[in-house]
Amino acid sequence: MAAEPLDIACDESGYEGQQLVSSPTTVFAHGSVHLTRDAAAGTMAELRGRIRSPATEYKANHLLREKHRAVLVWLLGPGGPVHGRAHVLLVDKPMFLVRTLLDQLVDAPERAATLTVTDEPRWRRFLVAGNQLLRTREPLDPTAADALFWSIDDLRRTGVPPAADETLALLAKSRARADAFLDRRRSDPPAFAPVDLLAPAIVHTVGHWGPVRITHDFQSTLTPARVEWLRAEAPDLVSLTLVDSNDDPRVQVADIVAGTVRVIAGRADPELAELAAAYV
């Protein structure tokens, strides 16, 4: 007997579309919650009562202030309203970019572990060029491939560990595939860019919960073509409804869970890290 679909609400944090580098955040989070509308509204009302901010829209940053730490612990803790009813996918955006680049150009995403990407300018140039190559939004950058392969040569010339050099050597031989990728972008743009995290995150969410009806905060990147791709990749997606988060308290809770867990992941705070781990 088929499982009855669950009603799930979703929102994301740290999403800048196809921009994975040179953006305010380095981690993307996609949050999903399984709450009734009444339960979600009650949770938001409780947050307002405890935090007592005059803000019309409550976001993760309200709970992340040290003076409201007890409220955050309540929300995420075992006795809180979302414990066991929420899930968060976390993605390191630079590492995702490297894996995607290796997947697209040399069919070896697993070799991303050999590249220890740092904030050095030479690695930054490599990431920016790779991001530009894999973008599908206009305007297309005709120099993206030149910049990428120049950055690869620069990394090898200035010295990297042997395993990293082996991976970069593979990339250095992939110019023909990079040019072919650019040609496909011009002639037949794909339904979504390989560096757009949102659609794959929804596929992951469906896989986590099983058959679902998803209510999601509106995103212009979820075009009809991308929704069709989602249906093909995630057959358990029964429906996808896009809404304004202000109109649905379930989406507001998903937004807060995604945002708090994303920030906690970058902090050295054992207590909060332990609470967040139950959601990731």
Any chance you could write out the topology, listing elements then pairs?
Layout (H helix, E strand, L loop, with lengths): L5 E8 L13 E7 L3 H15 L8 H4 L5 H8 L9 E7 H14 L14 H14 L9 H15 L3 H11 L2 H13 L10 H12 L2 E6 L6 H10 L3 E7 L5 H16 L5 H8 L3
Parallel strand pairs: 1-4, 4-5
Antiparallel strand pairs: 1-2, 2-3
Helix pairs in contact: 1-11, 4-5, 5-6, 6-7, 9-10
Protein name: DUF3800 domain-containing protein
Description of the molecule:
By secondary structure, the chain is of the alpha/beta class. The protein folds into 2 domains: 6-92 and 193-277, 2-Layer Sandwich (Nucleotidyltransferase, domain 5); 93-187, no CATH class. The chain is built from 12 helices and 5 strands. The protein has helices spanning 37-51, 60-63, 69-76, 93-106, 121-134, 144-158, 162-172, 175-187, 198-209, 224-233, 249-264, 270-277; strands at 6-13, 27-33, 86-92, 212-217, 237-243. Strands 3-2-1-4-5 form a 5-stranded mixed β-sheet, sandwiched between helices. Helix 10 (224-233) links the parallel strand 4 (212-217) and strand 5 (237-243). Helix 1 (37-51) packs across helix 11 (249-264) and helix 4 (93-106) crosses helix 5. It starts with 5 loop residues before the first strand and ends with a helix.
